[in-house]
Specification:
This protein is of the alpha+beta class. The protein has one domain: Alpha-D-Glucose-1,6-Bisphosphate, Chain A, domain 4, CATH 3.30.530. About 25% of the residues lie in helices and about 40% in strands. The strands form five sheets. Strands 1, 4, 5, 6, 12, 13 and 14 form a seven-stranded antiparallel beta sheet that branches. Strands 2-3 form a two-stranded antiparallel ribbon. A hairpin with a 2-residue loop joins strand 10 and strand 11. Helix 2 crosses helix 3. The longest helix is centred in the last third of the chain and has 15 residues. The radius of gyration is 19 Å and the shape is elongated.
């Protein structure tokens, strides 16, 4: 038991890096019944980077990336340092790439469900200046799928592959690098 505790401490200390992620539990119950038990899904996790630029420049870069990715910007709240859209839908393609590259809703008989489902997305970004002159950009991507071909009104929780968040943050950095 003593070795296990030491191993956990060592792993916890070795896991620091430049990308900051929310450390809340990764599983949350979504449905419970006597027949099926409890079904779990991943909790949304924020992905963040720190960039060497003033918050005002980063704010404009984030807005530009939303427009470039054809994501309607509904939340534009400088007082709360938040931009984004808490509820928009896309099908098949997001940011010019196949939806199933970013979203995992499981697979059906014809392949990945994210490739054919309507995906409802919440994408929110925090932009906060730091005392050292850098800015932290944190984005949270939460997808939910709906099989519209079968006329279903039920939505199922989907997971993020993590690729969209990385693409988004990479585009913010690239936009900041443009003259």
């Amino acid at each position: 038991m003593k070795r296990f505790s030491l191993l956990l401490f060592a792993v916890g200390c070795a896991s620091s890096g430049t990308t900051v992620e929310n450390t809340t539990s990764k599983q949350t119950p979504i449905f419970t019944s006597a027949e099926t038990g409890t079904l779990m899904t991943d909790r949304p996790r924020a992905t963040a980077i720190s960039v060497a630029a003033p918050a005002s420049n980063v704010w404009l870069a984030v807005k530009s990336v939303y427009a470039e990715m054809d994501i309607p910007l509904v939340v534009d709240n400088p007082a709360m340092h938040q931009l984004g859209n808490a509820n928009f839908a896309k099908s098949r393609v997001l940011a010019g790439r196949p939806m199933n590259e970013f979203v995992d809703c499981g697979s059906g008989m014809t392949g990945p469900k994210a490739a054919t489902y309507r995906i409802y997305i919440s994408l929110l970004t925090q932009v906060a200046g730091n005392a050292d002159g850098t800015t932290t950009v944190q984005t949270t991507f939460v997808p939910v799928g709906q099989d519209v071909s079968a006329g279903s009104s039920d939505r199922i929780p989907c997971g993020s592959t993590g690729r969209f968040e990385q693409l988004f943050l990479d585009r913010v950095k690239a936009t900041l690098g443009k003259p």
